[in-house]
Write the structure tokens for this entry.
Amino acid sequence: MPAPFRFVHCADVHLDTPFRSRSRDLRHRLTEAGRQAFEGLVGLCLEERVDALLIAGDLFDNDRLTLASEGFLVDQVARLARAGVHVVAVTGNHDPGRADQRAHAIDWPQERFHLLRSRKPETVEIHRRDGSLAGRVTGAGHLTAADTTNLAVSLPAIPGFDPVVGLLHSQVLDTVGADRHEPYAPCSREDLTGKGYDYWALGHVHQRQKVLDVPPAWYPGNLQGRHFGECGAKGALLVSVARGEAAKVEFRALAPVRWEQIVPDGLIGARTLAGLEESVAARFASLRSDADVLPGQEWMLRVVLGGQCPLAPQLESAEETDDLADRLAATLGVLSVEVRIDHICRPLDIEAHRDQPHLLGTTLALIAELGSDDELLDQVAPPHLAGLEGEDPAGRRRYLRELLDGLELEAAQALLRENVG
Amino acid sequence: MRLDGWEVSAFGPLAEFSASDLAGCPLIVLLGENESGKSTFFEFLTTILFGFAPATADAHPYTPWSGGILAGSATLVLTGGQTIRVHRQLRTTPRGKVGDTEIGNHPLPQVRDLSREMFRSLHALTLDDARELETRTWHQVEERLLGGAAVSLLRPAREVLSGIEKRANALWRTDRRGRPRDKEVRDELKQLKSRRAEALARTRRTLEIRAELAKIEQEIAAVLVQERELATRLELAHTLLPVLRRSQEIAATRASAAELLQGWSGSANPRLGLDRLQREVAEQRSEAERVRHHITSLEQHSQLEQNQQSIFDREAELRVMLGDAGVHRQDLAAFDDRRHKQEQAEAVLLERAGLVLDGDLSAAERAALASLSSVELRARMARWSELRHRDETAAAESRRAGEAAEILRQELVELPSMAAEEELRNRHLLVRKAHDQEELLKALQATAGERGSSGPKTVGRWLAGSAMIAAAAGLLAWTVLERTPLQWLAAALAALVGGAGVAILLRAWRSGPSNLDGRIESVAASYHAARLELGLEPDASLSAISAEVEAGLARAQRRSELEARLAAAEAQLSGARAEAEQIHDSLLAAHQEVMTALADLPVAAWRLKQPGPDLASDLESLRLALRGVEESRREREAIEERIHVRRERARRLALDLGTPPDGDPMDLVPEWTVMLEEATALRRRAEEAREALPSLRLELEERERSLAEAEARLTELTTLLGALDPQRNDPAEGLRRIEEGLRLGDRADALEQSLAREHPDWPERVAEAQRLLAEGQPLDLATGERVELEQRAEEVRAQLQDRRELRVKLSQELANLAHLPGVDEIDGEIEALDEERARFRRERDRLALLASVIREADRRYRDRHQPPVLRQASEYLRIITGGRYDRIVPDEAEDGSPRIAVARPNEPFPRVADHPLSRGIREQIYLALRLALADQVDDEEPLPLVLDELLVNWDPARTRGGIRILRSIGGRRQVFILTCHPALAERFAQEAGATVVALPSA
């Protein structure tokens, strides 16, 4: 039986992503974390002695790559080439491959590096160190930053008995989290079937997920989380495929900095800030026990405090929440803690006021009506909205209904006297 | 719904409190003292209707103070006439029953449309509500009553909306007023975008510099190649010929050196060896002479010792004498000291002898004194002293006994005789008798005086006593007729009255005039007779003669006592005299014993008269002085003997040493010390010389042998050097030739080393030059050609310098650019701001939506509830004011806030319920609106209304109006009035037919 084609599948590295932090030190650390994750990726390839590293697009962010990062990338790829590991990368919407784009200007190593940067499909044969053919990788890249061509359909069926892997930066419709990304190079699950491929190495959607069982198609997620929309362990997939056998896919965490959001329970019982801190610490401890936590793992935490809480009056002060964030960062030993107050209010028995013949009862009834009555919503809504662009009525109503979430509690808190629960 | 009755088992301060049959009462007054539980009653009623809140006994504020279980029941009559019984209990969990149906802690079905808070807010009117009119402005009250927040648990809508809009406007505004956060962020973003453009320009500049640097590196590399080529050509021209010439010079120098050194095989300069050999010969010669002289000197020292032999023979004896010299000096001093002490002791002895003895002490007397036994002498003297003391004591005792007997005898002589004593006794009896009669006479005379002044009183006594006896007799006669208890009592009374009458009559009889005067006369006669017998003058006092007689009797009674005491004193005197004589005899014997002991000493006679302890001490002191004299003498003689012996030994030694003494031979000791030290030093030097001589002689031999060897080597070297000058055979010339040859060799080596340093490849260059010369090529460049080459080289170097400077400058600029924020970093800040902006814009929209919703809800509430409330309130106001006002209508202030207006019948324009309308009418409007609001929320099943001390501060007119309206309301809704004022309760009972229920005392 021939040896399987073994490779590491990653995507959406997004080197040089600008980070949303007002702290320069923190931005530098997060930028450094991206490079560190890529270095870990190369280390994984060398340690596992894989045949290839497949990069499914968006190696860097917004067509922008600093000279330092460029040098770093070239050095790391050269390390793999020297070790006999092929690197096959397709361009994505962030690092498109047209001649005037940044990816084109990189002085990549000549040996064992393959950049597929045009829409025209290309096939790369991956030979092992002993010269035997491990498998073939077929893929196509984005030429521009907004390529909406369905690249999947253009990939040909590859005849032969060796494993074939499709490599694309593409948005497979209806996948989890796809709606958060622009629909570039879109395709459907059906477009990935019937070509006789043994594995689809996809990129673009940042949430790790299996797109198809047969043939196996995966998004590995991005290599390093960059904000609180990209929480959880991040890394790459170690894949082993052989004709006639099920692919073996194994996730390997590589991100040195992990983003997580904690929403502590039972705030209604938290009567002191120390109690609140303990509740957060308990949730964080359960996160740390996760199997994918790396040794020396660093954390970016967001603590969301919402709902009914006896400490609501204190937590409405920005100074208090900043102090709480600093204390939590020091206590938990993490890079940074952001405390976000999400419509917190003092404990209220809102049901006691519902349907009562007073203003609050009427207000609660009105909010309930607004959830389903478009005409009423249009009538009641404020004429000018700060957070909405465009005049699309449906979009406006959707936005307004999002705002209605939790508004009952806020109305009750505003209307009830302070000593009334 | 009406409350027919209740049974409060335990609820806060209320316990075992019940009432019944109240359903038909429209107005019920609960009358109780402060803290008796009036307010608690409303909580109890609320709990009956809505259940327990909080639902745990630990947290419930009305958990009974007694520690019992919260529990109570109530009987309710519903609007439809149905009667239900509700029981609530809170042990660990709340329980509730309606009839037999468990309802847990749920509200009664009849109040489910109403919240507990609403009931508490609208169905309880307290004094605090009335006070609200004082603490808040009327405008706020109007807003609350007319607005959607009519219940007290809510804040007024306008106040809430104002707060929300303020928060929203702080984030984002549609107009340009103020500086909302959005505007701040917009400005920050503008700055960041400007910084981003700068960062972008820096990035472009960085790329340009990198490209330029790469180009410069290439240029530098090309210039360096040119420079190397030119340098090679110039170096060839400049260095080949000089190298060849310098190599030729080296060869010539080496040839000259070789010629001069012909015949000389050494490589070093022989001058050093020659000088060293000459110095060695001179040194060896000098050292041999020095050793020889030393040997001679030591041999002389060894002979000097023999002259001191006589001293060495007596060395031991001399050293003893030297050692004794110090002791001898001490003995001389001690001898003088002892002699002086002996003289002093002798003086002391003579002085002490003078105190005790007659004349000096002879030798025999000194011996007797020395052998005197102090102990024996002291014992004898002590005995004498004791006996003398006892003798004196016995004599004194005998004297005192004699004196005491004499005093007693004298006293006996002075006592009265026996006959005189008998006479005194008789007079004493007579005095007593006279004294008794005198006392009796005074008493009788006083009685006679009283009788004279108490005649009417005595008559009264006779009358009273007779009357009482008569009354007693009458009563006794009545009791004889019948024996009833009353008659027994009357008989006892008659006995008492009769007894008392008899006593009064007796007293009257005793104080009567019979025999009194006769008795006075008789007693006075006896009294005067007694005085005459005593011999008293008529005006003399009886007490004086009485004291005199008693004193005489007292003296006569001491006779026998004195006689007994005298006999005892005489016996004591006799014993004392006998004892004194016996002691005196012993004293004389003791004195004789002392005299015997001192017989051998010439003790002065006056001291022997009192041979007591003083004499013993003086004799002991004398004996000690004698001992001191003897001891000093013995010590002086011993020292004298030692001095003599030492001097004799010294004298013999002096004669042996040939130094006969003039005085004390011990004075020669210092001279002997010097002699001995000098002899010892001579002996030590001789010994050292004898020890050193053998080795010095060996050293001398060695020195002479070394000198011979050095002289041989010197001769050999000078012979060799002379051979290098074949003409004159002069060693100096030979030496000069060798030195010149060696100098030329060194110069050739230095030239070669210098050449090798400058041109490590000089042999190759020499070979190349020789090859070129052999080929006939000239090694020197023409001047013009060399100048041209050097100019080109200079240009290339300048070009290289220029490129390098530019490279440094650009690298520096690149490094500076690397430290400035990059586009990605600024983008990070922009994104952070964008995110914050999106967040607070969303928050602003949320707040704006909330404000819109509350505003709309407020409008809806007013539309729905205000008209019926105002209608009902108008009706209540009409009743309260007796028809003066009949309408309450809403109005609006200029700022849009709600106002209350009232109107009179047939008055087209209502007036705003504010100044100049009185506070009274405003309070009535308030009450009317509050009652109407309650009607609005429970119209179908009107719940009881509880007024807690609401009317206590109202004036009579308003109270009348209040009672009127409550009576009106009571027809439809049961009203409870809680008060601690009995007058108010009474007024409600009288004017409104209210039922008064008394609360248990606190």
